[in-house]
Design brief:
It is a single chain. The chain has a 7-stranded parallel β-sheet with strand order 4-3-2-1-5-6-7, sandwiched between helices. The chain contains 9 helices and 7 strands; from the N terminus they run ααβαβαββαβαβαβαα. The protein is an alpha/beta fold. α3 runs parallel beside α4 and α3 runs parallel beside α8.
Length: about 250
């Protein structure tokens, strides 16, 4: 075992410069408690925000950006209908989403993540929940949203988009509207999905129907309400089971 440890460069606990195995186990156990605490606190804090729409997008856009202004308009229109608006709680598109919702009828919710750079809590939040772990935060985005509005963004935005599409495609989540705003920005991605994933049978052609591209703020709101008009916003019994096993 020691010889194998030498070959792999692994330091045995208790040796010079090594790690104390018991201390590492204890730290890992306490870390698990911290993760559980994030889930419990967020679930409790967000229990009354439904129905709500999650808005994603770049943290880097400035208030003078058309993306910022369009996000603020969409969020205000959603909030004025009484819907809650959930964002990542930081700057850029997240700030625009919270700002638009803040003065409306629905709650403005920020799910903030601790990062070494970029992330700062914006001031337009009625409810603010902090996270250390991305996966706990990502779970809450899906758990409490009945639609996704995806503005132009980077890796984080693409991550959230693809996770939602994967959950819906695989039946792990109920189907809900996934709306991309910014047809010019998203055109290349949509072409790639069709020309590569569909053409090479990586996804079914019908999977493309999981995505809508809408640029007009009023039509964004209309598409969400149209999806739920015959059934209401409350989760159906089968959807409640999916949420419990998400």
């Amino acid at each position: 075992m020691e010889e194998k440890a030498k070959r792999t460069g692994f330091r045995m606990p208790g040796g010079a410069g090594g790690n104390d195995a018991e201390t590492l186990v204890e730290r890992e156990a306490w870390r698990l408690f911290g993760i559980m605490a994030e889930f419990v606190e967020a679930t409790d804090r967000l229990a009354h925000v439904r129905p709500a729409v999650t808005i994603f997008g770049s943290a880097r856009v400035k208030p003078e950006s058309p993306y910022y202004q369009l996000t603020e308009t969409i969020a205000r229109k959603l909030s004025d209908t009484g819907l809650g608006v959930i964002s990542g709680g930081g700057p850029g598109v997240m700030e625009a989403a919270n700002k638009g919702a803040y003065d409306g009828e629905g709650p403005s919710v920020g799910l903030n993540i601790q990062l070494p750079h970029e992330q700062r809590r914006n001031p337009y939040q009625n409810i603010s929940v902090g996270f250390k772990h991305f996966f706990a935060r990502k779970y809450m985005f899906v758990r409490f949203a009945m639609a996704y509005v995806v503005m132009p963004g980077g890796f984080g935005t693409l991550d959230e988009l693809m996770e939602a599409l994967t959950l819906i495609q695989t039946g792990k989540s109920a189907r809900f509207p996934v709306i991309l705003v910014g047809s010019t920005f998203w055109a290349g991605l949509m072409d790639w999905l069709r020309d590569r994933l569909v053409a090479e049978n990586m996804i079914d052609a019908a999977d493309m129907d999981l995505i809508q591209i809408i640029d007009d703020p009023d039509q964004v709101v209309e598409a969400i309400f149209r999806h739920y008009e015959t059934r209401g916003f409350a989760p159906l019994p089968a959807e409640r089971e999916l949420l419990l096993n998400l």
